[in-house]
Amino acid sequence: MSWTWNAWPWDADPDAVRKDVALAHEDFTGSGRVRGTVRPVVGESWRRSARLGIDPDGSPLIELSGSDLADYREAHPLAATLPLLRRLLLDTAPGPQIVAVGDAAGRLLWVDGDHRLRSRAEDMHFVEGANWHERSAGTNAPGVALALDHEVQVFASEHFARSVQPWSCSAAPLHDPDTGALLGVLDITGEDQVASPQALALVKAAATAAEMELKARRIAGLLPGPRPSPDVPARAPDHLLLEVLGRDGARLTMDGRPVELSARHSEILLLLSSAPRGLSGAALGARLHERDGAPVTVRAEMSRLRRLIGHGLLASRPYRLLRPLPTDAETVRDRLCGGDPLGALRAYRGPVLPASEAPGVIEIREGLDAELIGDLGGEKDPRILMAWAEHPEWRDDPRVLGAVLRSLDPRSPGHAALRGRLRWLGR
Fold first, then answer.
1. According to the model, what pLDDT value does residue 264 have?
2. What's residue 237's pLDDT?
3. What is the average pLDDT score of the chain?
4. Which among 69, 122, 133, 264 has most CB atoms closer than 10 A?
5. pLDDT at 139
6. What number of other Cβ atoms are within 10 A of residue 30's Cβ?
7. Which H or E run includes 271?
């Protein structure tokens, strides 16, 4: 198993890893740039967490409790795997640890293990009913495992939230053995030992055993077959991309298949992509337009959108995406954060859904433009400045041309060309 998914190689010093990544985390929360020896899987998750607005000093929400949690757990297919998982991961554990099983949305349904550790974990809301998906809690092993559909470890200061950084965890996704549906996630949480290479191998093996247990119970008639659910899709689409730059209607690509969206459906998916915890019907309606944002109108649009793209991406109560949906606007931000303003310019194909008048879309559009202009306005590199002045979106904008002129050498050929263009524009 490669270091991509393991917290450290076999011969690494965990204390050295912890210190290096702690410095990189503080640097990232201050600058937005990933530096130092941070694993790519962690650095990319930090960037997603920051884009999603996760507070590094916050805690996950508790979304299920009481009878709602009890009823949901009783009906969940993973309930049948609990005795096996306890035997594999608790009865023979080499040291104190917590075992957690969550659903496909990231909500922890069962949390068991060492009482002392569980009591400490309550302070960071690592409890039954809390949502630990990456889009709700930032970088953590169960959240990243669900986001990427792959086993993974997150060690100490690799966590996005500071309150979780004293902990380490190893997690693996759990699938329906018949359909391949993502049913949930298996996680062990504790101190440094649960981030060892052998710990991840054990969690992966236990997840495979749990899936085989489900299969055996179905064959024996002890467990019903899989049932489709709007919140737990048969298979969520991979390789997602929502293109919104310079387009009146977005293009959604799922598994290599492009789908052209209406203006309204474009707005809905863009707004949900920027709301990791989801939006109520009223909140989504307000972000779409105050005049036609009634919940019944939103419900009708969501129903039409599901018919168009299937149930594998959308969920309700609240309306939310079952997987992170990357956008081409985020590509621009990523390149800015990575110190590549020229790359950001090349990726910027125009404003976000320029024809949209939805308040939420206008906010996203103006925010990206302000971020891009703010970064470029402080540039000193003549090559980048000229690329900005020649970009189709800004080449006739007197404000941009003036800003570039003020930064260019007055003796340069580019300076003379831009002065001529300003005169042609009547400035």
1. 93
2. 54
3. 86
4. 133
5. 96
6. 8
7. helix 263-273
- H or E segment and range at residue 197: helix 197-219
CA quadruple 43, 48, 53, 56: dihedral sign: negative
The pair of structure tokens assigned to 404 is 């570039």
Residues 47-102: tens digit of each pLDDT:
999 888 889 999 998 988 998 899 899 989 999 999 999 999 998 887 899 999 99
Q: Is the pTM of this model over 0.70?
A: no
* Fold adopted by 236-348: Arc Repressor Mutant, subunit A (1.10.10)
Q: What are the residues facing 67 on neighbouring strands?
A: none
**229 pLDDT exceeds 50?**
no
List Cα–Cα distances, 310 to 303, 305, 313, in angstroms: 10, 8, 7
Distance CA 182, CA 78 (A): 11
For residues 78 and 101, the answer to whether their CB atoms sit within 8 Å is yes
Tokens 């496909």 correspond to: 104
- Which of 169-183, 214-228, 283-297 has the lowest average pLDDT? 283-297
Any idea how long the chain is?
Answer: 427
Alpha-carbon dihedral 383, 384, 386, 391, rounded to 10 degrees: 140
Query: How buried is 380 (Cβ within 10 angstroms: 0-12 exposed, 13-18 middle, 19+ buried)?
Result: exposed
134 in Cβ contact with 144 (< 8 Å): yes
Q: Hey, what CATH class is 14-219 in?
A: alpha beta
DSSP of 275-330: -TT-B-HHHHHHHH-SSS--HHHHHHHHHHHHHHH-SSSEETTTBEESS---BHHH
Supply the pLDDT for residue 10: 62
Sign for the CA dihedral angle at 333, 336, 341, 343 comes to negative
| Torsion region of 83: left, alpha or beta (phi above 0 gives left; psi -120 to 50 gives alpha) | alpha
**Dist. CA 366–CA 50, nearest whole Å:** 18
pLDDT band for position 297 (50/70/90)? confident
Task: Give the type of residue at 125.
Answer: H
Rounded CA-CA distance 75/77 in Å is 6
- pLDDT > 90 fraction of the chain, expressed in percent and rounded: 44
Place of tokens 């559009």: 365
- Closest listed residue to residue 372, CA positions, set 358, 357, 355, 352: 352
